[in-house]
Amino acid sequence: MQTNVPDHAEKKKSKSVDVEVLLNLPKTLTKSNKKWQLAFIKIYCSRTLLNCAKHAISKPGLFPRSISYTTIDLDHNQHHHHHEEDFKIDTETLNDLVKNKNQDKLNSLGGPKALISSLKTNTRLGINEDPEEIQQRRSTYGSNTYTRQPSKSLIYFIIEAFKDLTILILLGCATLSLGFGIKEHGLKEGWYDGGSIFVAVFLVVAVSAISNFRQNKQFDKLSKVSSNIKIDVVRNGRRQEISIFDIVVGDIICLNIGDQVPADGVFVEGHSLHVDESSMTGESDHVEVSLTGNTFLFSGTKIADGFGKMLVTSVGMNTAWGQMMSHISRDTNEQTPLQSRLNKLTSSIGKVGLLVAFLVLLVLLVRYFTGSTKDESGKREYQGKKTKSDEIVNAVVEMVAAAVTIIVVAIPEGLPLAVTLTLAYSMKRMMKDQAMVRKLSACETMGSATVICTDKTGTLTLNQMKVTDFWFGLESGLVSCSSRVVELFHQGVAMNTTGSVFKAKSGTESGTEYEFSGSPTEKAILSWAVEKLKMDMEEVIQEHDVVHVEGFNSEKKRSGVLMKKKNGESNNVVHWKGAAEKILAMCSTFYDASGVVKEIKENDKIQFEKIIQSMAAKSLRCIAFAYSEDNEDIKKLKEERLSLLGIVGIKDPCRPGVKKAVEDCQFAGVNIKMITGDNIFTARAIAVECGILTPEDEMNREAVLEGEEFRNYSQEERLEKVERIKVMARSSPFDKLLMVKCLKELGHVVAVTGDGTNDAPALKEADIGLSMGIQGTEVAKESSDIVILDDNFASVATVLKWGRCVYNNIQKFIQFQLTVNVAALVINFVAAVSAGEVPLTAVQLLWVNLIMDTLGALALATEKPTNDLMKKKPIGRVAPLITNIMWRNLLAQAFYQISVLLLLQFRGRSIFDVTERVKNTLIFNTFVLCQVFNEFNARSLEKKNVFKGLHKNRLFIGIIVVTVVLQVVMVEFLKRFADTERLNWGQWGVCVAIAAASWPIGWLVKSVPVPERHFFSYLKWKKRS
Fold first, then answer.
1. Which residues of the chain fall short of a pLDDT of 50?
2. Neighbours of 950 (CB within 10 A)
3. What pLDDT score does 81 carry?
4. Could you report how far apart the first and last alpha carbons of the chain are, in Å?
């Protein structure tokens, strides 16, 4: 600061500037430093005031009283510990303001500007990033989180498992069996039969409840991740992304099309802002928000159009959205299409099981009451009136238990569990592979996809844009350009943007570093203007006022701004920026590099079109700038007879690995279609680079077309040509929706990627909507089924592979489960009808049920995807769940098991010279081991080598080992519990040999060819004929 300034006014002005600088010092200081800062400010201020007083008293004879001391109040705590006093407005007033749209109260407080001041923030700079200040705001006004419904406990799932009717019947049978057993044989011996059923039932319930509980916790975690939205805020003058949960009252939020409003607040700056409040009010009409009309913004609503800044006034539970969300419990009972198909299958099998169980019970009752059954000593069990009523009831209870257990085995309740397990497992793994599943059904549907319609920018390309080519008039590069043209470019770039430039002081010698925010295109243009054209964005903004804005529109592919200089000397000026050929069509003149305005003649137009085409052929996105001065209407921007300022070419390189991902999808029989807003030449160049267009396609005129051409076709023409289209350029969201509808009408299963708000209808219409995690708007994400977290097409290919894996794992489990069901039902039914007894007891069947339902589901549902899955054709929309290949495999194994076990049932005693109990143990042991060996066969439906990749699936190996160990324990150590007899080494060897034979049988059966046409379709055809 200069000291010897003669003019006192200058001196005062200079001092006031210094005071202002002192007051605006950063608050990121320790408490002791803050005290010293405060003391210094007070001393400095008192000296300044005294100095001013000396000059103010000019009358002679009047002398100011000299002050011999200065009092400094250093009790800094009284200001910072009373939070409500710190901020000039309380929580209740703020809450009432927005909730009730209380415009009168806002006006009485002094309007948005006064509110900003009361909350100690700034529209341009935002709040301080000081952790202490943010914590102070949080403790004063609350955090931006809401109370969630408590997660379901393990007890809840145990109770749910006990609600199963078959489990309740078994518990009833176990209770009766326990009662009669204790009465007949005493407590020491009599509890075994009933007690063992109890233990088996509780074991089944426990395993089922624990797996459901774990899966629910997994969904809870995913729910938290999906609700953690990133929000654009301004803090310390820097625009940055923070979590929605970190927002505090006083924050300045930047809002763009498609964003979710993260908290309640007041509009403070922006243009053409329209909000979709349907999530709060149910009204579909968009509400306009402006400084002159409605200024209130509600948490949870979506930005439909325009852009702006809002001041946060209420957060979390203080907002209507927070209170509403805290009362909504998340529904995890979503039924996927596959689950509903499996429920029908389960119901059909259950009915068969019910019929068999009823017949078995009938046969057992008839044989018992006709005296055909004998006890272990060879006496008839039923001897008319001589038989005690307790014995009759006990015998009937055992028969009912056996029949009910048949139902338990027959009903494949493991199917829904297998689906849930495989979906939960794949969701967890897909998260690691950069895909967040929002709707469960998308996991399995993706496996059936036949067409993927993908965006270009950010999905096929890196979304790291840079201006690499620019033309002023008809001259390329940074020629000696006139200052007038550069000035107009500064205006057009700085005023017509949703991005921003932050100039950060750095400790480096280079002086300042720039941070650019906004969309990748905006950042590329701002970076170019600042670095190459030496634009000072802050200066340009301060010199101009915005009159009207027309935000970027994916239909018109341009954005415009109407502005004027603050000194009011010039007229309103309009600046347009957008797709080069669209802007060129609006221009009648152009500026050359020397600043001379020339008319665009036919020759010049051809030259400009050639420039655009040559840039596009190099995969550049072409953006043109235009300008006009005579814009009289302040509500509408002039759209014709503009002056072209120049054209820039933005390079967005292809993602590494995208070509291979496209080839993988094409090899898997999935068609890739690129739908982009870029011009046809840029689109073609990128499509060739990514491998979407082959050399043959380039010769085919129908492979590449513009959205307008497709739109203008008749419906018949569209249906006839849509499958041949590979690239659609200059397309609008409506064109994308139209293409999806046409493909679905032709029977395709369609996956669509999208990132903009306008993509929402296509994302909803598609079978699988894939939104982008980085570039995607909140509206797009909410309309989608899966969020691709890294915006990479390679992740889309990974999702396809996982989708096929889910479907394949479920098919493996169905084959495994149905083999057990068919074998168990036939064996018990035949034995009951012929011998009057069932070889597999209730406890044994429950154990088999546990192996195949829960452990089998875990083993087969957690197989990882292999590259072999991408060598098959897509399943499509109407493929049967149980294929001919599955029928071949399961019927062969079931036939083998039934044959061997019935042979043991009727000839086992004589062949092995053993007692009845040992024979029954042999049947039980062989049956369980057959399932263990068949579990290996189920790992692959078609491949003969079922051991490939086995070492990578430790869970599968672990489950097999656990099953075998438990089976040994059941047979050798739990004789009374499982109703078994110990087996010698030779008998164990026989059981293992019989079970192991299922491997060579499986190998041979897989050599048998099956027709592609499904077996049941022949039956339908015969019916029709």
1. 1-17, 27, 56-85, 332, 507-511, 1019-1025
2. 14
3. 41
4. 103
- Interatomic CA distance for residues 744 and 751, integer angstroms: 10
What is the C-alpha separation between 408 and 848, in angstroms, rounded?
10
Q: What gap in Å lies between CA 137 and CA 141, rounded to an integer?
A: 6
Amino acid occupying residue 1019: L
Inter-residue contact 580 to 679 (CB < 8 Å): yes
Chain mean position to CA 994: 48
CA distances from 689 to 655, 658, 700, 703, 946 (A): 10, 9, 17, 15, 39
Closest CA to 430 of 1016, 864, 997: 864
Partner residues linked to 650 by β-bridges: 467, 621
Do residues 896 and 997 make contact, with C-beta atoms less than 8 angstroms apart?
yes
> What residues contact 218, with CB distance under 8 A and at least 6 apart?
424, 427, 428
In the numeric block, which tokens belong to residue 47? 């000296």
CB atoms near residue 570 (< 10 Å)? 11
CA–CA separation, 426 vs 433, rounded Å? 10
Side-chain-facing half-sphere of 322: CA atoms under 13 Å: 19
Q: Which residues are catalytic?
A: 455
**Pair of tokens at residue 892:** 């062969």
- The burial class, CB within 10 Å (0-12 / 13-18 / 19+), for 1013 is exposed
- Determine the residue type at 1020: K
Query: φ and ψ at 388, to 5 degrees?
Result: -70, 150
If you search the block for the tokens 């143990």, which residue do you land on? 921
Q: How far apart are CA 1002 and CA 885, in angstroms?
A: 12
* pLDDT value for 679: 84
Calculate the alpha carbon distances from 390 to 175, 179, 375, 393 in Å: 14, 10, 16, 5
Q: Give the span between the Cα atoms of 561 and 370, in whole angstroms.
A: 98
Residue type for position 331: D
Per-residue model confidence (pLDDT) at position 526: 93
State how far the Cα of 403 lies from the Cα of 401, in Å rounded to an integer.
5
- pLDDT the model gives residue 24: 54
CB 670 within 8 A of CB 451: yes
Cβ contact 547:605 at 8 Å:
no
Do the Cβ atoms of 804 and 447 come closer than 8 Å?
A: yes
348 burial level (CB within 10 Å; 0-12, 13-18, 19+): exposed
Tokens found for residue 426: 């794949």
Q: Is the dihedral of CA 271, 276, 277, 279 positive or negative?
A: negative
The torsion of the CA quartet 692, 693, 695, 700, rounded to 10 degrees, works out to 150
Task: Name the DSSP letter for residue 722.
Answer: G
Q: Strand 750-754 relative to strand 451-454: parallel, antiparallel, unpaired?
A: parallel
Instruction: Identify the CA nearest to 408 among candidates 811, 820, 938.
Output: 820
Three-class SS string for 730-781? CCCHHHHHHHHHHHHHCCCCEEEEECCHHHHHHHHHCCEEEEECCCCCHHHH
CB 693 within 8 A of CB 684: yes
SS3 178: helix
Q: What share of the chain is helix, strand, coil (3-state, %, to 5)?
A: 55, 15, 30
pLDDT tens digits for 824-840?
888 877 877 776 677 77
CB atoms within 10 A of CB 568: 7
CA distance 990 to 109: 91
**Residue type present at position 10:** E
- CA 587, 593, 595, 601 torsion: positive or negative? negative
- Reference 177, options 207, 201, 206, 204; nearest CA is 201
Neighbour tally for 917: CB within 10 Å = 13
- pTM comes to 0.71
Between strands 264-276 and 786-788, the pairing is unpaired
Please answer whether residues 209 and 154 qualify as being in contact, where contact means their C-beta atoms are separated by less than 8 angstroms: yes
Rounded to whole angstroms, the Cα distance separating 291 from 270 reads 9
Q: How far apart are CA 872 and CA 597, in angstroms?
A: 62
